Amino acid sequence: MGTFYGADRCYVFMFSVDLVTASNTHEWCALGVSPQKSFLQNLASAEFGSWFSSWQEGEITIIADISVLNHTSNEYQLLASQGIKSLLMIPLRSNTRLIGMFGIDMVKQLQDWSEAEVAGLSLIAGNIGGALLRKEAEEKAESLAFYDTVTGLANRQLMLDRIHQAQLQSNRNLFYVALLFIDVDDFKTLNDSLGFSKGDELLKLIGQALQAVLPQGDTIGRFSADEFLVLSELFTADRNKAVQAVTELAARLQHALLFNQDLMSLREKNTISIGCTLFLGGQHDTDVLITQADLATYQVKQAGGNGLSFFDITLQDQAYQRLTLAQELQQALNEEQFELFYQPQLVHPGVVLGAEVLLRWRHPERGLLSPDAFIRFAEETGLIVEMGEYVLFHACKQLAIWQQTPSTARLELSVNISAKQLKQANFSDKVLDIIKHTAIDASALKLELTESVLVEDFENIVSVMQILQAKGIRFSLDDFGTGYSSLVYLKRLPLYQLKVDRSFVADLLTDENDQAIAKMIILLGQTLGLEVMAEGVETVEQLKILYKLGCYHYQGYYFSKPLPLNEFEHYLVKASGGLI
C-alpha cells in the first residue's frame, strides 16, 4: 500500500482496551526513510490532541502541510520530531469502539490526497480493522480454550495435551518426566474470610511466583480451584537423579512463596503441598498420572502440609480401597445398612435417663463394623453430612415411638454432630424439619459437639445453637478438656451438659493430674449450673471417685456397652424395672 500510494511511511497504531495509550504495531518505510516504530510505544492518547476525539467519532485526519499547525501544540511536536511534512490518518473501529489508526506519512515532500485516494484508503483501513478484530477474537477464543482466566496459566485442557506430548517425547528419548500436583495449604480459610476476589488475587500471585522459578521448557497450569500442575522434563534416565532433581525443584517452588512480599501482604504464611509422580513414556493414561500425583499430595496434606511426597504403589492400593469404601458407604446409606446402637446414660443411684446414639454398619460381607472403620473417611469425603442426617432422623423416630409409652416417655437421646454438619448453612432448618416430621418433644434430644467444632466460625455456631435451643433442644460439649478448652465457650455457648472425657476417667485411680482435671471440670460445671457426665466409666472404683468428686451422671462399660435397640430396651427393664 505504501508503494502503491507513493508514501514514505505506512503504519498501524493500536489502542489499549481502555484507550489510555497507543502503540505503533506495524510499520513499512520507503528506502532511506528512518523507521519510527521503536520510538512510538505506549504513547499517551493525549499526545494525539484533538485528533483522538475526532477518531472516536470516526473522522479522518488529513494534513497536507504540518507547518500550518500551532508549533507549540502536542500534535505538531509529535509530527515534527519524525520529519513528517504531510500525513493522512484513518481511524480503525469496531461497531462500538476505537481500536486503532491506519496512517500514511510523507517526509520528502508535501502531499495532498484526492477524494478517490481517500476513499480507497478508507476501504483498505476498513479491511485492516476487520482483520485485526478477527485476530483479536481468535486470540480470545484460544485464550478461553487453553488458558485459565484467573491466573493466565495453562488450563486443564492444555495441561492434558502437554502431558501427552511429554509422554511421546519420553518414549523417544527414555528420559524421566515429573508431574507435580501442587495444592495451596489452607487456601479455604483465606477464601472464606477475605472473599473470592482476594482468593483469586492470591492464586494469580502464586501462579506467577511458581512460574518465575521454573526451568525453561517446564509447564505450569492451574488444574482446579487452588490446585496447580507442573510438568518438568528431567533429561535423565537415572531414577535416583530424577528424584533428586524433583526434590531440588520442589524446594525452589516452596521458597518462591515463603518470602514473596506481594503474597505476604495478603497473608503472612504461604505454603504448598507437592505430590509427584515420575514416568517414562506412555505406560499410563494422563488421568492416571494426575491421580497418582494427587494421591502423593494427599499424603503431604495428611502429614500437615508444606512438603513433598512421591507416588508409589502403596498409595495406589490405598486409593483403590478409598474408592471402594466410598462406593460401599453410599450403598450402605441407600440400603439402610447402618444401625443405631444405644449406650445407656445413668444418674445416681442408677436410674437410666436415656442413651447416646452410636452408629454401627452391618456390612454384607465384613459383618458388624464399629465407627473406627469408616467415620474418619466419611468426614474426609463429606459423606458424614448425609450419615449424620440419617442418624438424627432415625434417633428422632425412635424417640417418637418411646414418647408414646409412659414407661419410656421420659427417655433422652444424645446424638453426635460433626463439624461439617454444623457448618451447613441450613443445618438448623434441617434439624427443625426432622423435629416437626417426627413430632417429638424436642427437650428429649441432646446434640453433642466436640471442642474442635468450635475452633472455626464460632459466632455462627453460637447463633445456630441459640436458634435450636429456643425450640427446646439441648447441647452437650463432648471431650471437654482434651483440646481447645476455653472459658469463652462455656460463657457464650448455650450448653446444658459437659462430658468428662474418658481419657481422664481411665486413670483416675493412678494419675493425680487426671483426677485434678476431672475435679476441675466437675466444679466448673457445677459453678456454671451445667450437668456434668463422665464417660468411659469401667470400674466401680472409678464410679466411687467420680461420685466423691461430685459427678452424678455416668456412661460406660461398667453399666453397659452400646446395645442394639432390642437389647437396650431389655436393659431398661432390667436396670429400672420399668422407668418412672
From TrEMBL:
Domain EAL per the UniProt entry, residue ranges: 322-576
- Name-wise, this protein is Sensor domain-containing phosphodiesterase
**One Pfam family matching this protein:** GAF
Q: Which organism is it from?
A: Alishewanella maricola
GGDEF domain mapped to chain residues? 175-313
- What domain of life? Bacteria
Entry-linked SMART domains: EAL, GGDEF
Tell me the leader sequence span: none
